[in-house]
Amino acid sequence: MIYEFMFIILGYFMGSIPVGLILGWIKGIDIRKHGSGNIGAANAFRILGKKLGITTMILDMVKGAIAVLAARFYLWFGNYDGFGTSPSDWYHLDPGFLLACVAIMAVLGHSFPVWLKFKGGKSASVAAGVIFGINPIAFVILYGVWILALVKTRYTSLSNLISALTAPPLYWFFAGEKFFHNQSWWAAIVGIILVLFVTWRHKENIKRLFAGTERKLGQKEKSEDTKEVSATE
Q1: Residue 227: per-residue pLDDT
Q2: CA nearest neighbour of 45 among 23, 63, 74
Q3: Distance CA 138, CA 180 (A)
Q4: Contact 98, 7 (CB under 8 A)
Q5: Is the pLDDT at 230 greater than 50, yes or no?
Q6: What residues does each domain of the chain span?
Q7: What number of CA atoms fall less than 13 Å from residue 227's CA on the CB side?
């Protein structure tokens, strides 16, 4: 089981790479001291500009995808034994269980990075990346839903929530025998956990959406040095 635990730990550390913060440092800016103070893509977009904001979002997705794809390659070419459980057991820890563990740890790593005293982003982009690693078809549709919601509403947080709610049914449908042959209950569970977690991380955004005070994408703050909480990753 050593290899399985190594991939789970790798998931956390891949997720904990603070991409937005690193890109800000390259420009001589600590994005934690500006805007919302968040290291996610939305704040990077606002503080660092469009190009670096998009780069942050893509790289956050990539780090989540790499973590899960590494585990998937191990499942293809390694010797996964279900953490020692028997296929005859009702609780058999099938390959979907390993992918689920790695996915959750990558998301937790982004939200609670050990390097930043466990103060990270809201994990929407990383969650999308792990979905790609588990099910690329679901990811493509999910990303399309996110873009459509963003174009229509201009709220990053609302788009994140809409795409998160869409993820579990999309994953389940495209995970069956006709597609990726991994329609695992463990995978369904991870989808639900990710939705609940991303929603919880956006709880303040939800309050502001109902209050009508949430800022839209590209809406500038009054003062660059004034630290406000806003729609973030």
Answers
A1: 40
A2: 23
A3: 11
A4: yes
A5: no
A6: 2-211
A7: 7
Q: What span, in angstroms and rounded, lies between the C-alpha atoms of 170 and 225?
A: 41
pTM: 0.83
Structure-token match 């891949």, residue found:
14
Question: Helix, strand or coil for residue 117?
Answer: coil
Q: Which two tokens stand for residue 157?
A: 């947080």
Q: Tokens representing 146?
A: 């996110």
**CA quadruple 198, 200, 204, 208: dihedral positive or negative?**
positive
What whole-number distance in Å separates Cα of residue 88 and Cα of residue 1?
A: 19
Count the neighbouring beta carbons within 10 Å of the beta carbon of residue 208.
Answer: 17
Residue type, 57: M
List, in order, residues 6 or more apart from 206 with CB less than 8 Å away: 157, 161, 199
Tens digit of pLDDT for each residue in 154-203? 888 899 889 888 888 887 777 766 666 566 777 777 778 878 888 898 88
The 10s digit of each residue's pLDDT in 101-143 is: 999 999 999 999 999 999 998 888 898 899 898 888 888 998 8
* CA 229/CA 32 separation, integer angstroms: 11
Contact 129, 219 (CB under 8 A): no
Angle (deg, nearest 10), helices 156-174 and 136-153 = 150
